[in-house]
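QUALITY CONTROL LOG
STEP: pairwise intake check
CHECKER ROLE: data steward
CRITERIA: each record must contain a sequence immediately followed by its structure tokens, with no blank fields

ENTRY 1 OF 2
RESULT FIELD BELOW
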Amino acid sequence: MKKLLLITLILTSITTYSQEEKIQMISKFDYPEDNREYIMGNFLGIDKLDFSFTNSEKLIGKNFKITLRKYKNGEIEIEKIVINTKGEGLPTIKKDFKFSLITQQILNNEKIAFFFPGFFNKQIFDVNKKFKDGTMLLREVTGGDEKINFEIGKETQIALITPPNDNPDKGNLGYCEVSKGNIDVEKWYEKYKISEFFLIYLIVEE
């Protein structure tokens, strides 16, 4: 009985230690508490996701890249490295690594901006005129859990910008149906036939 209890305690300790050692990325929508700001943000079609990391001390001093890929008919139309700290001489990761992503679709354009302590990056991309203002929305890709495991040296999807499902025969019309977690582009496009969308990726270099 004592041996069984000891084994149980050891296994519990190992599991707890492993969980504590993992890095997880946390993504949360930033909804203004002020009702006026909330209304204005919705009217203007502005979305904001805040990103942070557990065990972020493991990331200190490392460089990172953010890559944005625009897809058209299931294929990459544009691939752009929007932030490359090593290549651009930008600051490496400091303590408590955090940043925000803000998007807005207006006048056949998608505005995408990344905000870090001390610097920001803004991009503008053309989108098909069939998508009216505010049709494309920013979606998190954590599957509703707000957290996903994050590995140093591995490119990780962090956000999706998409219109709702284009094909009512393939699933529920809406944004929740098409953003349930990590996107396997080939299978995802085959199911939903969404003609244009954006995926954003982060890699922290080893």
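ENTRY 2 OF 2
RESULT FIELD BELOW
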Amino acid sequence: MNDLAVRELAYSCMKERGFKWPEPVKIKIGEMAPSPMNARRYGVIEGLEVRKWGYHLPSGPESDSLGHKESEKEVKPDARAIEAYTGRAPDEDMSDESTSSTKGCLGQAQRDVFGEREEDSKWTELLKYHSRSFLDASRDASVIDAMARWRTCMKGSGCKYADIWGANNDPRWQVSEVSVSEISTAINDVRCKTESRVPAVLLSVETELQSNYIRHNAADFSKIKYNLGKVYEHSLDVVGTRRAG
């Protein structure tokens, strides 16, 4: 919902500035599903999905990965529109998040939804714990053992990777087309994850770690919960107003 509110506000900003920009897909609020933020936290795990998409993110029949309607994909933003949206010149390095612009429509929308200052929403604090539990879990003995089982399983299929991320981030998959080799590797990846129980072990360890974080930092998480609740309420207002307009 928060991401949709950001896209809605950014789209309105672009319209006000006179730029053409793909409109966010129309979804009824009552029918909206939760954002799959952690869908691939442990890499690919869905057998049916990888048989078609490999390691690529699936594209729905009605919208693309950015939530743009299929019928409006003909809207191709030019360099000036992209600069207005991001607030950065087309040739500017966008890999460094610390250079995030406050001039573009996207930055304005993010500040509107999440707060004038990042810490106001407590989102960065939540992400800190979110990342910490993943890193701590990866060092756990049971996870290391499960990863070794996955590695042995993959080697038996002719795929040599140090861990699940070596397979997931293989440079060969960083192209637009899904290759036969990618699909084959992804299928073996999912099978070996099931046999080695990597996702299940990771989830178990992370759940315990996160429960401990919450128990030992109750005051912090109480503030995080309150502030994110306010952000969500504001996002509902934003999306509801846009739908009614």
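INTAKE CHECK: passed for both entries
DESCRIPTIVE NOTE, ENTRY 2: Confidence is low (pLDDT under 50) at residues 29-35, 60-73, 93-100.
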